[in-house]
């Protein structure tokens, strides 16, 4: 697989992951055509998306089309198709098969179920009948309306209108937009459109519980594809044979802002409410800025930043990124130490994710992926205790 300088093979695989299932959205809007989602996705991507992406060569555009068209096929395809196919499989590990007596879903009418109703506290949870009684409306996000689940019997899916809004938003972007000239700008724009319009589109229906959005599924598939490209051929072949094996596939990298309480609440009583809002917004921007710094330092696409809020951020990175994290960690600590004098800092750490961690088994009392999150949280808490140790050893004058 060849590419120009600046468009790495891993980034091209990520773009394929971000686009691979867009046909599911269009298929729901044109259900009467009875065409596969791969066919919908290939045609629309080929006609509406790729002609506008000036940063891709004709060969690279052909490779993306093949990913969209062939990501469910078995067989020996090019490496980028194989990587996205595996990433799609791993990103679908959360899917829970419906009960036999419930039957199968209808993608044209199926609504997204709220995942919160599946939470179990102290081993208990809501009755399945109650849990499936609520769903989300098929509407674009806007700033004037809060999004809450409603009773399913009061809702009707309107995917044609939702798709029209999505397509009009895409086509309204001017040709001079950075999204068409820079891969990072495209990824950010594409993710924003998915969050606005595909947040309420189920990633899967038929025999699967429709409680994960297409927007989330496409982002995670793109992120995993960027990580899997880094795997040796032998590891990739083993995972293709068994995608639930105990094989490392990526790093889960976490960042945690230290000193939030002290920074937020050491304010004077005069204008306290305004100062508190301002400092909260400042910390949110700081968290985003450090996440972006780490992302760029690891040369990852924007889809790999999974979460950034509340003084925490998480991203997926290739296994080889573990060699670069100590340098980035030291740079972040030193810059923030110079600026804040130690009052505010950000710690970084990571844990390896196995393919088996991404497979959810509802019959198990604990999720392996949950264990990885807890392990990373423990690492970050421990890192806070020795935050300035490295700096103190190499440059004690900065600390003391």
Topology:
Layout: H1 9-19, H2 22-29, H3 37-49, H4 58-70, H5 79-91, H6 128-131, E1 134-135, E2 150-151, H7 159-171, H8 183-197, H9 214-228, H10 233-241, E3 248-258, H11 260-265, H12 272-297, E4 305-309, E5 312-317, H13 325-340, E6 345-354, H14 368-385, H15 389-394, H16 396-399
Helix pairs in contact: 1-4, 1-5, 1-9, 2-3, 2-7, 3-4, 4-5, 5-9, 7-8, 8-9
Give an account of the 3D structure.
The protein is of the alpha+beta class and 400 residues long. Helix content is 48%, strand content 9%. Strands 4-5-3-6 form a four-stranded antiparallel sheet, with helices on both faces. A two-stranded antiparallel sheet has the order 1-2. α1 (9-19) packs across α5 and α1 packs antiparallel against α9 (214-228). The model is unreliable at 1-6 and 99-103 (pLDDT under 50).
Which terms would index this structure?
400 residues, alpha+beta, four-stranded antiparallel β-sheet, two-stranded antiparallel sheet, 6 strands
Task: Provide a short characterization of the protein structure.
The protein is an alpha+beta fold and 400 residues long.
């Amino acid at each position: 697989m060849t590419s120009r300088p600046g468009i790495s093979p891993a980034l091209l695989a990520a773009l394929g992951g971000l686009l691979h299932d867009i046909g599911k959205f269009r298929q729901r809007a044109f259900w009467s055509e009875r065409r596969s989602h791969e066919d919908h996705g290939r045609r629309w991507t080929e006609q509406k998306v790729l002609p506008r992406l000036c940063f891709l060569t004709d060969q690279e555009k052909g490779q993306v089309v093949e990913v969209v068209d062939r990501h469910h096929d078995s067989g020996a395809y090019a490496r980028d198709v194989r990587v996205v196919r595996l990433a799609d499989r791993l990103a679908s590990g959360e899917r829970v098969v419906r009960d036999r007596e419930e039957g199968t879903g209808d993608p044209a009418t199926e609504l997204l179920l709220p995942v919160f109703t599946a939470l179990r506290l102290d081993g208990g949870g809501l009755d399945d009948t109650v849990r499936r009684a609520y769903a989300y409306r098929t509407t674009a996000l806007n700033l004037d309306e809060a999004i809450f689940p409603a009773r399913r019997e009061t809702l009707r899916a309107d995917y044609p209108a939702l798709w029209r809004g999505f397509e009009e938003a895409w086509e309204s972007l001017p040709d001079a937009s950075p999204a068409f000239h820079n891969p990072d700008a495209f990824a950010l724009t594409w993710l924003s459109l998915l969050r606005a319009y595909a947040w309420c589109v189920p990633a899967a229906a038929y025999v699967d519980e429709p409680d994960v959005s297409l927007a989330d599924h496409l982002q995670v598939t793109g992120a995993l594809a960027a990580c899997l490209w880094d795997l040796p051929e032998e590891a990739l072949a083993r995972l293709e044979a068994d995608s639930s094996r105990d094989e490392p596939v990526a790093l889960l990298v976490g960042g945690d802002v230290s000193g939030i309480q002290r920074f937020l609440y050491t304010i004077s009583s005069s204008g306290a409410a305004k100062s508190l809002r301002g400092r909260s917004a400042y910390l949110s921007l700081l968290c985003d800025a450090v996440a972006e710094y780490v992302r760029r330092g690891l040369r990852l696409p924007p889809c790999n930043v999974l979460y950034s809020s509340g003084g925490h951020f998480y991203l997926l990175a290739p296994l080889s990124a573990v060699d670069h994290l100590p340098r980035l960690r030291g740079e972040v600590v030193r810059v923030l130490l110079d600026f804040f004098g130690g009052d505010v800092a950000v710690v970084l750490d990571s844990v390896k994710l196995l393919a088996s961690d991404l497979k959810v088994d509802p019959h198990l009392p604990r999720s392996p992926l949950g264990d990885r999150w807890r392990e990373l949280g423990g690492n970050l808490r421990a890192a806070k205790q020795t935050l300035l140790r490295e700096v103190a050893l190499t440059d004690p004058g900065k600390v003391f």
